[in-house]
Amino acid sequence: RYPLCNLSVQRYTPEELLRALDAGEVDFGVMVSFAIPEKGYQYLVYYPSKLMLVVPSYHRLANQKRVNITELKDENFVTLSRSVNRAIDRIQEICAKGNFHPKFVKETNSFNTLLMLEATGMGISLHFQLHKDSCSYDLRFIDLETGESEDEKLTDGAALVWKEQNQNPALRPFVDCIHDCMERFLPEQMQSIKEQ
Fold this sequence. Notes:
three-stranded antiparallel sheet; alpha/beta; elongated; about 30% helix; 6 helices; single chain; 9 strands
């Protein structure tokens, strides 16, 4: 469709990606939406996904269908390091809705290590529902009642991000192409975005 466009794929941490976007080294990136700063960037959540509580199979809450955030005030949390992801900020924001500060007992730079720490019972965490299908550990993903509306819950997810001042002429066609792919391959997610 756009034969003169060159697409190169590289792996960055969210912080590295934001620096590369700021420096003009890359035009677009993919990251979780809550890691995108409020100013200076635009983004398209192409895979909305709610945050869920994740616990090991033997945890006291493992058989619950839904858990209120206030039930987690005495739990130990494990998370990705701030240098890799801003999940800590989002977890703190959600726990504040339950009137407590989470007790982080371990941070790691690896998502796979994080899942392993959860499976061994070191702590609990919050993950996107989209991670559930690719999780090979014996973990339970549980709906979490946070006091957020359904619309607020669906603003999180995997997002395409770019600088507001990006002048690349391929920007709009690329975003449109991603949007078209979403409508074609993820119709349910697109409908939830349109309803917001």
